Amino acid sequence: MTITFRTETFRDDFTFRNSPAGIRRFPFPFHEDGYMYSVNIEPHRPGAPGSVFEHGFDVDEHYVAEMADRALVLAEDPLRCQALPHMDLASWDYLELVMTTKARDYPELFTLETDGDRWHWTNRPLGIDDRFTFGVTSTLPCPPLEYIGRQTQGDHCLLDQRDNNLWMDAGMVTTQADWSLDFDIGMNFFEWHAPVPLAHEMGVFQRAIKFLTSIPQGQPSRRLNWTLTVNPRLDTSPENYPKWGPDKLTVTPDTIGEKMHLRVELQTFWRLPRSNALVFPIRCYLLRFDDLVTIPKWARRMHRVIRDLPPELVTYKGMSRYHPMLVEWLAAHDDGAPTSPGIFPD
Amino acid sequence: MSSTARALAVTVADVIEVTPLVKRFEFVSTDGAPLPPFSGGAHVVVELPDGDHLRRNPYSLMSSPRDLSRYAISVRRDDGGRGGSRYLHEQVVPGMAMTISAPVNLFALDLRARKHLMIAGGIGITPFIAQIHQLSGGGAPFELHYKARSAPLAAYMDDLAARHPGAVHACCSDRGEDLDLDTLLTTQPLGTHLYVCGPERLIAGVTARAAALGWPARHVHVEHFAAPPPGLPFAVRLAASNLSITVRGEQSLLEAIEEAGVDAPYLCRGGACGQCETAVVACDGTLHHHDHWLTDAQRETGDRIMPCVSRFTGRLLTLDR
Amino acid sequence: MIEPTILSRPTYGTLEPRPGRAHLLIADDAGSAAIVDLFARAPADFHESATILSVTKDLSGDEAAALHRLSPATLTACPDMPAMLNTLAGLLAEAGMGVQIYLAGTEPLIGQAMRVVIEAGIDHSAIATEHRGSLARRVQCVHCKGFMDEVTTQPVTCAHCGLSLFVRDHYSRRLAAFQGVCINAEDQSEIVPAEEVFR
Question: Where is the 2Fe-2S ferredoxin-type domain (chain B) (predicted)?
């Protein structure tokens, strides 16, 4: 399979588009006609060829453009990538996981040659060819988490495991749904999820932590999370809220189809064997509403989910301003027919 | 949702007598590939197919986390136990194919520590050997105090002392030596983390003194190596699987469940990690809890059991499994 | 009394004497009474192993005098927060495991002292705290990253970038601050009047 990397932007003129194949492989997050929190974690096993679940770290047509957008974010705000001092080993652990996995799954794009601690990494899409000593930061152009984070789609959080809890002690976070690594770094699992409504009372996080702290190496898990974003903007950080907040005023019945995007996070969880930390990659996929409704099953279901969303979640997911307008727009694409179970198109 | 580490096919590369009671077993991966990386303090679960009885015993890895060409464990022979260590000592020879689990770490170093203070008792030395290998590559300083009955029985003492002069301290009771715990615990720099692995009495004694001397609980880390104790056979009803089984005297409840072909999660098999926690549906008799997981209040209610180490006496125990 | 809201919002207890050979107590003027109360509950020889570090507006005021009457082994009064935090870091560099840390006073005092203790290698859960005094908050503007001490209004105008900030209950121990997020980022023509709420 060869991937044609798109030249596109996630800011200013927003030239981001999904190809027809990109639309069909989008990880639609709703397996039924409604949504409520659940600990919807499943094994991150290789999925159907061509799907976003085929490989441990999905590389798609947006790879090169997303990495260029990340570079722009980091140039303005270096605090988007940070590691507390005790997370150096976990950072190397993660670099190893990404390099070995990608080199195995995409040999035409990535190559890793190792001779003991002497490693040679080639990343053809980004034109990188580096030799370094594994575990020795001074042999890389930047610290290991930043190095591999600049070459891997999605945000990456390294969670230290202590006292039956997980601690957000390092991360590369530039494509986030409105949370700040710089503020949250050092917090435990319950603290960084503190602002999420309803889920604490439902015991979702208590059940999740028990599962996550016992994830064994080599057996990653995954779940999907979602929100809505106006314009295909990756960097919806709290830091830049004054830049993307006003976008919400541009939503009208005439612009919804073009401007409104379903934003899905493919969250995976991996044990890092050398440090016993956990890595939590959060991969963001965007799908324009105009493109979403080309899949009849998704069009019907999206309407029913948004229409029936609890008010707390309407607020938390930032759609209070235009929720009624959205429901009305989506209703026009729902013929009332039943939908089949599961997330994939019919 | 629960977890069990995946299986690795290995071959016994070497069996070395370390002391009259301790043997070291070295494993290489059967397909010749490097073994998975691990962190100091991790254990593997070794499958011991002794006749028609399959035991799975956890042992700490003691080899260097930076050498993935082989794993090493050290096993102290315990003739009063259920027979796992005896099987290893008597039956396992170089060239044998064995199955072990991927490493799991329930006794990891706290890498925030400014200093690591380690106290080992007897065969409890093994996780520290891997941790010391890990720290030797850089990181905070460590200090190891190793209690043993006698120097000849103190496995790896000479080697550790020679490689880390000044950082490794022996304490042999036959020489009349005892650990001056109060001095040790009151002379550590701020930011020190304390690790204890060894017999239950040592762990209880050290943790109690540390608490009395004002050590924060989160700076004290322990590894219990509770082996499942043998006992009397007992009858169990597995309600969810609709099966009735008998747990033999030298078998653990978890092993009996596995023998019946019922999938049951686990990580530590030592009553510490909580993975195998199972709901008790009915209990016509007495539960004997041997784990470190359930709280006193949970034991009081009697509505759950850790089948990896705990047992039962009475007419019938019914589990939600 | 500070009520729990969300799980990242710190809550505080009541200082009680703890086992340990050395006791390091830190207070601002509001917190000095909590130290006095703690001593009243402590064993008679508690003062012999106690070091008190205070930040006070008036080095010869009532609060300083009350702490002096406790006869701690060491009593250091600092005229401002940076001086106190520097002194604290110096004391911790000399301290060993087993020292008990007690923080009493306003949230900015507790939070900033706690940060120094954590940086010295002590887990935050081991630090005893008691809130006394005002509810004024230390706030970080998530946009310009500037800090403001003693924030009492909701919303508050960022002293650095001028944005109108909603002060969340979301709190960072590492920054010793609550998070301030632009309250009208979507429509800056919406002006939300400030109310004095953190008193």
Answer: 234-321
Residue C7 has its nearest CB partner, among A182, A194, A239, at: A194
Are C100 and C153 found together in one domain?
A: no
Going from N- to C-terminal start, the domains of chain A cover 20-84+157-331
Segment (H or E) for B199: none
> Are residues C97 and B214, on separate chains, in Cβ contact within 8 Å?
yes
Helix, strand, or coil here: A286? Answer: strand
Helices and strands per DSSP (H, E), number in chain C: 4, 12
pLDDT band at B3 (very low <50, low <70, confident <90, very high): low
Residue C8 is nearest to which of A187, A238, A249, comparing CB atoms?
Answer: A187
CA torsion A50-A55-A60-A66 (nearest 10°) is 160
Neighbours of chain A (3+ CB pairs under 8 A): B, C
Q: Rounded to an integer, what distance in angstroms lies between the CA atom of residue B144 and that of residue B127? A: 12
- H or E segment at A92? helix A88-105
Residue ranges in chain C whose pLDDT is less than 70: none
CB contact under 8 A, A191 and C163: no
Does residue B229 fall inside a structural domain? no
pLDDT of res. A177: 85
Question: Which of C131, C150, C172 is where one domain is finished?
Answer: C131
Chain B CB within 8 Å of residue A135 CB: yes
Reported confidence tier of residue A101, pLDDT bands at 50, 70, 90: very high
Written as six digits, the tokens of B43 are 């254990």
Residue the block writes with tokens 């002497």: A118
Residues of C in contact with A195 (CB under 8 A): 6, 8, 168, 170
pLDDT at B1 (0 to 100)? 43
pLDDT of residue A1: 58
Residues C74 and C44 in one domain: yes
Confidence band, pLDDT 50/70/90 cuts, at residue B81: confident
Last residue of a domain, one of B159, B194, B223: B223
Q: Do A218 and B36 touch (CB under 8 A)?
A: yes
Final residue belonging to a domain, choices C96, C131, C166: C131
- Does residue C9 sit within a domain? no
Task: State residue B229's pLDDT score.
Answer: 84
Residue A340 CA to residue A129 CA, distance in Å, equals 47
Tell me the shortest Cα–Cα distance from A312 to chain B, in angstroms: 28
Domain span holding position C31: 22-131
CB contact under 8 A, B186 and C20: no
Question: If you count residue pairs, one on A and one on C, with CB atoms under 8 Å apart, how many are there?
Answer: 64
Q: For A43-65, write each residue's pLDDT tens digit.
A: 999 999 999 999 999 999 999 99
Q: A110 in the Ramachandran plot: left (φ > 0), alpha (ψ -120 to 50) or beta?
A: beta
B172 with B150: CB under 8 angstroms?
Answer: yes
For an interface test with B, which of C21, C23, C94, C97 has the most B Cβ atoms less than 10 Å from its Cβ?
A: C97
C159 and C91 in one domain?
A: no
Note down the domain range covering B269: 234-319
Distance (Å) from the alpha carbon of C190 to chain B's nearest alpha carbon: 46
Distance CA B7, CA C170 (A): 43
Question: Do residues B182 and B157 share a domain?
Answer: yes
Decide if C126 and B217 are in contact by the 8 Å CB cutoff: yes
Percent helix, strand and coil across chain C, each to the nearest 5: 25, 30, 45
Using CB atoms, which residue from B185, B189, B218 is nearest to C126?
Answer: B218
Looking at this predicted complex, what is its ipTM?
0.95
Distance CA B155, CA B21 (A): 9
Q: Are B257 and B301 in contact (CB under 8 A)?
A: no
The residues of A carrying an active-site annotation are: 223
Interchain pair B105, A276: CB under 8 A: yes
* pLDDT of A174 higher than 80: yes
Report the residue of chain B nearest C127, measured CA to CA.
B216
| B228 within some domain | no
| Domain count of the fold of chain B | 3
